[in-house]
Design goal:
Distance between the termini: 50 Å
Strand content: over 45%
Shape: globular
Radius of gyration: 20 Å
Order of helices and strands: HEEEEEEEEEEEHEEEEEEEEEEHEEE
Number of strands: 24
Structural class: mainly beta
Number of helices: 3
Amino acid sequence: MKKSFIIFILGAWGTVSYAQDTAYVSRNKTTALFFKSAVKIISKSTPDFDVDQKENALITIKALTTDFSPTRINVQEISTAKIYHIPVEYSYGRAGRRIELDGGAPMTVRVIKTADVNYSAVVSQLAEGKRKDVVDHEKTGGVKAWVDKLSLAGNRVFFRLDIRNKSNLPYEIDFVRFYIRDLKTVARMATHEQEIVPLITTLRKKTSIAHKQEIAKVFGFHRFSLSDDQALNVELYERNGNRHLYLQIKQKDLDNLKTITPARQQPVNAIAANTL
């Protein structure tokens, strides 16, 4: 009897469930869920939204309709068998965010296993040094941003985002959005936006830039290409403010990107710091 009781307790512990904050989704914005380790989706598929496992520890969600009732998806961590119950609701304004599961803290380094390539060295190389090879820049309200050091390493496209604040008012970053859209659209014609999510980033949550301060953050994506009439839009939003910045990367910029040969190792770990 005692042995059976112990087995029951261990079995219950192995499938501990965790309630999580709500993941808001929309039809034209992709919401990304980042986990500490490999997970698997255990919920049944639904016609209301698309749930896609991009990496062992990365799941994306995108709405297929706008009129579904609040629901949830269930995800299980493979190593511990614990289950995450993640509420999902439709909200255009709050969709498109990157969500860190299991209480990730700012700049907590997560390990992402990649095909024997050490991307951490690439990130360090791009983060260091002065700004160069600027692709686009934009300024508003004393704040200026540059996209520079566009590079290809392995199967990842990287670039650096430099932000400088010359105003007396601190600039607090709410979130950064990335999506591909046509450069020219016909009036009253529906536009198609393809949200993309960085796999690697050094931007921490609630980053604030003080007066006369400048920061440089690196972003890495799955390798992608654009047509001549498309652009990757990089939108930087201020928390509790309106000094938003809008930048673009075009195919002509990708044609001229620099190539970096990343170090290889067995096994390999690439870093991805928490973001917004």
